[in-house]
Amino acid sequence: MACLADPQDSYPVIHLTGTNGKGSTAGMIEALLATMGLRVGTFTSPHLESINERIRVGGEPISDIDLASAITSVAAASESLGGQGLSWFETMTAAALSHFANEAVDVVVLEVGLLGRYDATNVAHAQIAVVTNVGFDHTDGAGDWRLEIAREKAGIIEPSTVLVMGEQDPEVVSVFEREKPAAMIERGIDFDVVDDTLAVGGRLIDVRTPRGRYGELFLAMHGHHQSENASLALVAVEEFFDSCIPDDVAAEALGSPTMPGRMEIVSRNPLVVLDVAHNPPGAEVLANALESTFDEGRRFVVLGMLDGRDPVAVCEALHVADAEVVVACTAPSRRGVPAAEVAAAVAACGGTSEVVDDLDEAVDRALSMASPEDMVLIVGSHTVVGRARGLLLRK
To answer: pTM of the prediction?
Structure first.
């Protein structure tokens, strides 16, 4: 980055880490900042359908030409240093940070790729750090795994950083406190979702923050977990501006967000829902949200996963035993878990499954079994949801 003239130092950064909810929270922060009139650069991962989605300016994905130019600059810098052998993610991170500097953005919303301390995004210096939660992912589960994960995520904190903390476990919170941020704003103490009710097309929420209260705020997303993510976004942006957010800004930004792949409804009759939940905590949150939000008839699930996850734990968290049929497929990736292994995990959790290796055929099979009053859930990984989303929207 020094060879590229340290572009990451040319703008303030809001840095996000956490096991689940980073993408949704980042999107809400992006919307709030943009509605306040700022030019926002956003770097998130992974993508659904196109790599360009990872790098956005003003809400628009980077063009192919600009992406090629940014990657070429990074490659040239690496070669000038003797060929440093950057990883794929390091290359994309450097390209994003350079592109944002070239575009003269006012602020960057930066999502951690893996944990935090040694993540490539941690080359940037966070003015605001957001921690959504700390759960089971990227770990073998040995020893005090939760505290070990927390210690790595806490690595994005610097002495000048204001920390917005969504995790509430006191033992875990203390790990972040030991990094000595400039200030820490905690869920349940300094801010919280006071009221959260189901509404047509989303949620109606009431959020208290250190600077005020947002009452009867419509959130155009499904699930209580998104209400909690919205509270994190509101507080992070308040801290960035050191002031309250105007009510009309909050209403506009959160009332029409676009969050592909997060309890996203892509068609009805039957209801087809896409969600990128891929680890046990995310799957559990999704299952509970579906049960509290929708009252459709039978549930058919298309499930494909990537390796590095525990298929049985994910299936148990998804409540697969309550589904009519789980159509197990192989995720369209070289890391895809074979469909037969996914089906075996479903069976181990008491569910009924069919093996349809090809994702497109698995989606067609689930739709063929569902009646207009039923639900089809497509879930398990970003690669599965991204491929299915493109297929369904083209249809």
So the answer is: 0.90
CATH of domain 7-255: 3.40.1190.10
Domain ranges of the chain: 7-255, 264-394
User: What pLDDT is stored for residue 143 in this prediction?
Assistant: 75
Q: Which of 15-29, 71-85, 240-254, 362-376 is predicted least confidently?
A: 71-85
Identify the burial level of 79 via C-beta atoms within 10 angstroms of its C-beta, where 0-12 means exposed, 13-18 middle and 19 or more buried.
exposed
Q: Is the pLDDT of residue 132 over 80?
A: yes
- Exposure string for 218-239, b = 16+ CB within 10 A, e = fewer: bbebbbbbbbbbbbbbbbbbbb
Whether the CB-CB separation of 162 and 239 falls below 8 Å is answered with: yes
CATH of 264-394, one of 3.90.1150.10, 3.40.50.720, 3.90.190.20, 3.40.50.1110: 3.90.190.20
Handedness of CA 383, 384, 389, 392 (dihedral sign): positive
Q: Which of 99, 94, 127 is nearest to 113 (CA)?
A: 94
